[in-house]
Design goal:
- Helix 7 links the parallel strand 1 and strand 2.
- This protein has eight helices and four strands, in the order ααααααβαβββα.
- By secondary structure, it is of the alpha+beta class.
- It has two domains: about 120 residues, N-terminal domain of the delta subunit of the F1F0-ATP synthase (Peroxidase, domain 1), CATH 1.10.520; about 70 residues, no CATH class.
- Helix 1 crosses helix 6 and helix 4 packs antiparallel against helix 5.
- The protein starts with a helix and ends with a helix.
């Protein structure tokens, strides 16, 4: 019984922070999007989201800054203000980052950017497909896949591409809650399951 409780609390410990972060990021994203929409600066917001996403991917220092448990609110606020000024971010995003630092919420920046990206895409009638392939797709393959998905979903589909060499060929495509798995690994797994049922 105690062991079972431990397992349950273990599961909660892992998933709870992620869902809390997503909730916080979602609230900030909605506020930032609405402010940018009201001030007719969605184009600037989109540029900021792209620039910040790239900066987070490229800079270990920036990732350390937003995740630092030892930096004070003031240190984080001054540092993120300097980053925003250097990058030339819009006033809406700059002030939002300052507010997040003051509230010690900078750690949700990756989720915030993902949420804003989804909101901007939806606003433009686009959706994003998370595509994982066994090998890097060529431009022609990516364009063909995007065209095929756009036809299926009747919306412009942007691809977010990743490579996973454990797939043994094929693709895993996730669009919203829909998952399309054409990888050989998935086919082998379903074949194994079918054989178990027969056995």
């Amino acid at each position: 019984m105690i062991g079972g409780g431990g397992r349950i609390s273990g599961r909660v410990d892992v998933s709870e922070p992620a869902s809390i972060s997503a909730g916080i990021a979602g609230r900030y994203a909605r506020a930032v999007f609405d402010l940018a929409d009201e001030s007719r600066s969605l184009k600037a917001l989109e540029a900021d989201v792209v620039a910040l996403t790239a900066a987070l991917a490229d800079s270990a220092d920036l990732r350390a800054l937003i995740a630092s448990p030892v930096a004070t609110r003031d240190e984080q606020r001054r540092a993120i203000a300097a980053v925003a000024a250097k990058m030339g971010l819009s006033p809406t995003v700059t002030s939002s980052l300052g507010l997040m630092a003051a509230n010690r919420r900078l750690f949700v920046l990756p989720q915030l950017l993902a949420a804003l990206s989804a909101m901007l895409a939806e606003h433009k009638g686009e959706i994003t497909a998370e595509v994982t392939a066994a090998t890097r797709l060529s431009k022609a393959q990516a364009d063909a896949l995007s065209a095929s998905l756009s036809k299926t979903f009747a919306k412009t589909v942007k691809l977010n591409l990743a490579v996973d060499d454990t797939l043994i060929g094929g693709l895993v495509v996730k669009v919203g809650s829909k998952m399309i798995d054409t990888s050989i690994r998935a086919k082998l797994a379903s074949l194994q399951n079918a054989m178990k049922e027969v056995g």
